[in-house]
């Protein structure tokens, strides 16, 4: 029987207790709805089974701090500053980036790399996704450098509308714990309805088709530019920030690969 608890403003102890065990999977609230959280290969296998999800998309790593992001992801100084700007503004942002080689060897060596990266060896590194889930990611990274991996908690291609009832029977029955916080999710977009609210965060690709970092400034039309590949919460703020950092960048919603 799946356990349900209400978020009380602090890191949820029941979630900590589950995620400290091997192979556990929980559902947790974010700014844009509910997500599945896992911490290891066995949990990732459970996530893919629950989602019935295609394995060729980049995996999502939830970063609880800028220090964690810097240890894991390969970035130019400009990319790091782009993240820092969104961190300081408390703006949800995910970017497609390659792993640092030392981080790949240290943290993905047990076979989870195949479940966490796409064919180019990249993942989506996400910051500022919402207090209830950030608390957990920060806790586990500070305690034991354990990463939190995520996917939206709903059948693939369908949103959960920011309602715990929207995660679907399959995911609810497959998970160990559900942290409920519908009021928190609704508070992030108070001027929106269930039908008009963003159900996802903005995603920006900072790599080319081979998974190599794009240049800080394109030198020719042939050079790959940063690409906003998924619109979502605070897309207007993120586009302004991209314009401040890059002379040329592209908008191509849906260009995931």
Measured distance between first and last alpha carbons: 38 Å
Order of helices and strands: EHEEHEHHEHHEHEHEHEEHE
Rg computed from alpha carbons, rounded to a whole number of angstroms = 17 Å
The residue-averaged pLDDT reads 93
Q: What low-confidence regions span 5 or more consecutive residues with pLDDT below 50?
A: none
Question: Total number of β-strand segments?
Answer: 11
Helical content, roughly?
25-40%
| Distinct helical segment count | 10
The strand order across the widest sheet is 1-8-2-3-7-4-6-5-9-10-11
Estimate what percentage of residues fall within beta strands: 15-25%
Class from secondary-structure proportions: alpha/beta
Q: What best-fitting shape do the alpha-carbon axes yield?
A: globular
Major sheet:
11 strands, mixed
List the SSEs and their pairings.
Elements: E1 3-6, H1 13-19, E2 25-30, E3 33-38, H2 41-51, E4 60-62, H3 66-72, H4 77-88, E5 93-98, H5 101-107, H6 113-116, E6 122-127, H7 131-144, E7 148-152, H8 169-174, E8 177-180, H9 182-188, E9 203-205, E10 227-230, H10 235-245, E11 250-251
Parallel strand pairs: 1-8, 2-8, 4-6, 5-9, 10-11
Antiparallel strand pairs: 2-3, 3-7, 4-7, 5-6, 9-10
Task: For this entry, give a set of tags.
single chain, 257 residues, alpha/beta, eleven-stranded mixed β-sheet, 33% helix, globular
Can you give a write-up of this model?
With 257 residues, the protein is α/β, with parallel strands linked by helices. 33% of the residues lie in helices and 19% in strands. It is built from ten helices and eleven strands. The protein has an eleven-stranded mixed beta sheet with strand order 1-8-2-3-7-4-6-5-9-10-11, with helices on both faces. A hairpin with a 2-residue loop joins strand 2 (25-30) and strand 3 (33-38). Helix 4 packs antiparallel against helix 10. The model has no long low-confidence stretch (mean pLDDT 93).
């Amino acid at each position: 029987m799946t356990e349900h608890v209400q978020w009380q403003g602090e890191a949820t102890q029941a979630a900590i207790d589950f995620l400290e065990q091997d192979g556990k999977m929980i559902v947790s609230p974010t700014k844009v709805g509910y997500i599945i959280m896992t911490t290891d290969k066995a949990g990732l296998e459970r996530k893919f089974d629950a989602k019935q999800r295609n394995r060729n998309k980049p995996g999502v790593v939830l970063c609880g701090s800028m220090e964690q992001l810097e240890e894991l992801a390969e970035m130019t100084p400009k990319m790091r500053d782009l993240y820092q700007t969104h961190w300081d503004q408390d703006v949800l942002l995910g970017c497609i980036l390659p792993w640092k080689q030392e981080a790949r060897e240290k943290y993905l060596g047990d076979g989870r790399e195949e479940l966490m990266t796409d064919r180019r060896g990249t993942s989506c590194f996400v910051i500022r996704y919402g207090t209830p889930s950030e608390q957990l990611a920060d806790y586990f990274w500070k305690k034991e450098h354990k990463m939190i991996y995520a996917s939206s908690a709903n059948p693939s291609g369908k949103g959960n509308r920011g309602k715990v009832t929207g995660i679907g029977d399959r995911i609810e029955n497959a998970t160990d714990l559900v942290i409920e916080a519908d009021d928190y999710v609704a508070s992030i977009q108070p001027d929106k309805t269930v039908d008009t609210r963003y159900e996802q965060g903005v995603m920006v690709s900072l790599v080319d088709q081979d998974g190599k970092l794009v240049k800080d400034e394109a030198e020719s039309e042939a050079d790959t530019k940063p690409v906003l590949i998924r619109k979502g919460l605070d897309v207007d703020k993120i586009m302004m920030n991209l314009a401040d950092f890059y002379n040329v960048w592209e908008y191509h919603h849906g260009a995931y690969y």
